[in-house]
Amino acid sequence: MPTLILVRHGRSTANTGGVLAGWTPGVALDERGTAQAAALPDRLRDIPLAALVTSPLQRCQETVAPLLAARPELPSHTDERIGECHYGDWSGRELAALHDEPLMTVVQRHPSAASFPGGESLRAMQARAVDAVREWNERIEREHGPEAVYLMCSHGDPIKAVVADALGLHLDHFQRIAVDPCSLTAIRYTRLRPYLLRLGDTGETASLAPPATPPGGGAGDPGEAVVGGGAGAP
Asked: What is the distance between the alpha carbons of residues 87 and 62, in angstroms, rounded to a whole number?
């Protein structure tokens, strides 16, 4: 079966603004995100991509635009199933203001039970994203052969959910996975099991350095994962 490269969109204005974007319209790449997107064609220059599938949201469309400009022959498709989680009434709100919401504890500790008011559950988000990957795997193999490589541009939570599925992890563990903006995650699917080849690869190491003050306040305490994926490295 094919190899899937998952690309999280480049850093967005919502990432740097500490806002839970969801499907809020008009969320674009910021200056760094635009530079990350511009570097994507060179990062992928040695990979013969069979197709590109992207979320319909603006920040994903902007991320893949330089790649499509460099490869005008690359078949491109849009699939709403790999769009961001529908956060409902939480969409557009500042993450700091959501910190004390009782639901946030569920999102962090028991995400398979979390359902956003006026939106969808994280369980439903994972199901649609995984269904999309499996259907595209079959289509890509049918049209391009079992050794084909294709790319999906999506968002932090759907990518983490797909990775959890590939690793056989329960959704309650998906907050342990981190994918920075414009990072590459690669999964090779086979008849018996998937293999995680890359996870959140940005090609840099600066983000691995310890912060001056550990997030979460405690020594060595990395704090909670950020719903929506967070901004990643500055």
From this structure: 22
Both structure tokens of 204: 């840099």
Residues 6+ apart with CB under 8 A from 226: 95, 156
The overall average pLDDT reported for the chain is 91
> Nearest to residue 9, comparing CAs of 71, 67, 50, 48?
67
Q: In what order do the strands lie in the sheet with 3-8?
A: 76-78, 49-54, 149-154, 3-8, 184-189, 194-201
Say if residue 234's pLDDT is above 60.
no
Residues 69-107 as b or e (16 or more Cβ within 10 Å = b): eebeebeeeebebbbbbbbeebbebebeebeeeeebeeb
Nearest alpha carbon to residue 112 among 56, 63, 155, 173: 173
CA nearest to 182, candidates 6, 4, 2, 3: 6
Specify burial of residue 187 (Cβ count, 10 A radius: 0-12, 13-18, 19+): buried
Global confidence as pTM = 0.90
**Which class for 222: exposed (0-12), middle (13-18), buried (19 or more C-beta within 10 A)?**
exposed
